[in-house]
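Hi everyone, sorry if this is the wrong subforum. Our group has a chain we'd like a structural model of before ordering constructs, and none of us has done structure prediction before. Sequence below.
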Amino acid sequence: MNLIVPDWPVPSRVKSLMTTRAGGVSRAPWASFNLGDHVGDDPDHVAANRAYLRQQLPAEPGWLRQVHSARVVELGHETNPEADAAFTREPGQVCAVLTADCLPVLFCDRAGSVVAAAHAGWRGLAGGVLESTVAAMRTAPGDILAWMGPAIGPHAFEVGDDVREIFVASHPEAAAAFAPHAPGKWLADIYRLARIRLQHAGVQDVYGGGRCTFGEADRFYSYRRDGVTGRMASLIWRS
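Answer:
Right subforum, don't worry. Here is the predicted structure as tokens:
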């Protein structure tokens, strides 16, 4: 299993990681470490991959039914919740989100007392999933750190006028995150858009960003690139 360990200055009690597509048992087009159970992969293969991941964790992750919403749940309060972000203050509970181009964002406070994970595609990002996560953590936004995992990069993320207008209507400075590409089409920088949203929410310490899931086919799943594909997990917990 090939893991990414986020590089950010979190307290020692906070642990985080992100999986890649390498090191599992799934076969093409999901090869090989697919953790998504909703993408058409053999359920036995997904279960085997999740069991292998579980060996690296203190508990089974709190998997979500992600729907590109801004809903945030507290782990342990619902079974198989429909949401796109989760937080916990309980030691040993693992927040997790699945992605394959969308932006995963991990959060913790400076004291390591609360952690969270959010799934931010453009719809969730525009809908306020990051702001909702910060609010749900119920701590001063200035004390929150965020880490952005690999997502589709600014040279591959084509969107239409409608998407650009949604972001610019909320934050005029978001116009700088869109580069003209073709008539009615733009290349969007999801990392820059997320930073703008986080800064407006009061989160100043933001790390990560810069990798492109679309461009690194041997390392990352990409829905835009492949259509039928697997999902990677970004996870965070506290001891």
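For your construct planning: The two ends are 23 Å apart (CA to CA). DSSP finds six helices and 13 strands in the chain.
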